[in-house]
From TrEMBL:
Coiled coil: none annotated. Residues 24-47 are annotated as: Disordered. It is an enzyme of class 2 (transferase). Residues 28-42 have a biased composition (Low complexity). It comes from Pseudoroseomonas cervicalis ATCC 49957. Belongs to the class-III pyridoxal-phosphate-dependent aminotransferase family. PANTHER family: ADENOSYLMETHIONINE-8-AMINO-7-OXONONANOATE AMINOTRANSFERASE, BETA-ALANINE--PYRUVATE AMINOTRANSFERASE. Keywords: Aminotransferase, Pyridoxal phosphate, Transferase. GO terms for molecular function: adenosylmethionine-8-amino-7-oxononanoate transaminase activity; beta-alanine:pyruvate transaminase activity; pyridoxal phosphate binding. This is Putative adenosylmethionine-8-amino-7-oxononanoate transaminase. Its EC number is 2.6.1.18. The keyword Lyase does not apply. The gene is aptA.
Length: 494
């Protein structure tokens, strides 16, 4: 059987009874879309096909790339040099051409249990057959409550109330709104100010973007949220370059919160930081920094929010970064690894006292005017329950912790290669910083990315920093392959 969803977009689905290989299948129904007339056509070779191991779906090369406006992408470059990932299994992706690409980034820091986990896929399939969707506004379904309980079992003691979202961005905005609602509910309605940190990333909603500290994410969008201020970032390359473990210098940077309190008085509702800043290049917190931030928040009646979208679910060798780094926030955001990214889902874990203040202190009726149609979506809840079960049964945080010394050594073995100016590492995540080519920031890292991909290794770049965060099931052989390929590519890009 052959299905065509759209004339220009040719997906061929073959049932298992048909012969597996259709390498030279003709491409019926192809007609160029009008808007594709001016761009280079895709490579002319016939649509080779990839077999998806479990369900025998064969996906051929789509031949219309115009309609999808790709997020955070160089659309023009991609559409003239497409790199299409067609399937994934374990530690690897496979391209539409059938080339294996070792996943050095767990997708986008999210497939912590590796790809194509049968337990998760089956849980989603089963739930889809039982109940596809049900609202969670004034109604409930058992699996959402069960998923919340499972998350609460993993979060630090006291953070037992779980609000479901669909992404890290929504989690960030939800956490900020809960913080504001809490301050109001406890009679501190003058606390409307939100504090983030330079080089912080909290997604792309207006809240997260405003509290985030990345200039490039803001420049196109004009006005940000009002009443937002920022702490300095903690990147001190002069003192901390090539530090192993937590860098020694920089705890004093938390004291900048005292300056903000001096400036803004008692109008600050919350401080939101990533325990380890991932997206701006793996900035590991200095020894004592988060402890100091915790003390100052307590001293001044300010809530501390950790954005654990990357650091959650085993990445740092513990369930959450809070545990590894020894500081418990009042509110914690998460997403990505929560469902192993098999279905989008995010969550916000909230301290019980905050929940009690907002919920029990409210008049009868809705207590928090916030929520998403898909909060606690049944398929996502099923994926979360199955993922968290895998975390436990395979002790994924423990695996990451056991592999950390080998991974850190492999990262630091790149020291001394041309243009490597810093290496930072914690858990199964590392940032390798390259010096930029004069007048061409990002160009060197982009070359390294493309070379690695062509050699079968997926890395991630941010500016001229290479970030690696493989699935937590990585074996030594994967780590050798990732760093060996990266080392060659760095030398080539000298
Ligand atoms: C710390 C942090 N917060 C929020 C987000 C946004 O998550 P999403 O892309 O799911 O909205 C990310 C994404 O990488 C992140 O790293």
């Amino acid at each position: 059987m052959v299905l065509f969803y759209k004339k220009e977009l040719f997906w061929q689905i073959l049932l298992p009874t048909l012969p597996a290989a259709a390498e030279s299948a003709a491409q019926p129904g192809r007609s160029p879309s009008p808007s594709s007339a001016n761009r280079p056509s895709l490579p002319a070779h016939p649509p080779r096909q990839c077999r998806l191991a479990m369900n025998q779906i064969h996906v051929s090369r789509p031949n219309d790339l115009d309609a999808f406006w790709m997020p955070y992408s160089d659309n023009r470059y991609f559409k003239s040099h497409p790199r299409l990932l067609a399937r994934a299994e374990g530690m690897s992706y496979f391209t539409a051409d059938g080339q294996e690409v070792i996943d050095g980034t767990a997708g986008l820091w999210c497939c912590n249990a590796g790809h194509g986990r049968r337990e998760i896929t089956e849980a989603i399939q089963k739930q889809a057959a039982i109940m596809d969707f049900a609202p969670t506004f004034q109604l409930g379904h058992p699996i959402a409550f069960e998923a919340a309980s499972r998350v609460a079992e993993m979060t630090p003691a006291g953070l037992d109330r779980i609000f479901f979202t669909n992404s890290g961005s929504e989690s960030a905005d939800t956490a900020l709104k809960i913080a504001l609602a809490y301050q109001k509910a406890r009679g501190q309605s003058q606390r409307v100010r939100l504090v983030g940190r330079e080089r912080g990333y909290h997604g792309v909603g207006f809240g997260g973007m405003s509290v985030g500290g990345i200039g490039g994410n803001r420049k196109q969008f004009g006005a940000m949220l009002p009443y937002v201020d920022h702490l300095p970032h903690t990147h001190l390359p002069e003192q901390n370059a090539f530090a192993k473990g937590l860098p020694q210098h920089g705890a004093h940077l938390a004291d900048a919160l005292e300056n903000l309190v001096a400036l803004h008085g008692d109008t600050i509702a919350a401080v939101m930081v990533e325990p380890m800043a991932g997206s701006t290049g793996v900035l590991v917190p200095p020894v004592g920094y988060l402890q100091r931030l915790r003390e100052l928040c307590d001293k001044h009646g300010i809530l501390l929010i950790f954005d654990e979208v990357i650091t959650g679910f085993g990445r740092l060798g513990t369930n959450f970064g809070a545990e590894r780094l020894g500081v418990t926030p009042d509110i914690m955001t998460m997403a990505k690894g929560l469902t192993n990214a098999a279905v989008p889902m995010g969550a916000v874990a909230v301290n019980n006292a905050i929940y009690d203040t907002v919920v029990n202190g409210a008049p009868d009726g809705i207590e928090l005017f916030h929520g998403y149609t898909y909060s606690g979506h049944p398929l996502a809840a099923a994926a979360a329950i199955a993922t968290l079960a895998l975390h436990k049964s395979e002790d994924l945080p423990g695996r990451a912790a056991a592999m950390e010394p080998y991974f850190e050594e492999a990262a630091h073995s790149l020291r001394g290669l041309p243009n490597v100016i810093d290496i930072r590492s914690i858990g199964l995540v590392t940032g390798i910083e390259l010096s930029s080519r004069p007048g061409k920031p990002t160009a060197r890292a982009v070359d390294v990315f493309r070379d690695c991909f062509d050699k079968g290794v997926l890395i991630r770049t941010t500016g001229d920093i290479i970030a690696l965060s493989p699935p937590l099931i990585a074996e030594k052989s994967h780590i050798d392959r990732i760093f060996g390929t990266l080392s060659d590519a760095i030398k080539k890009a000298a």
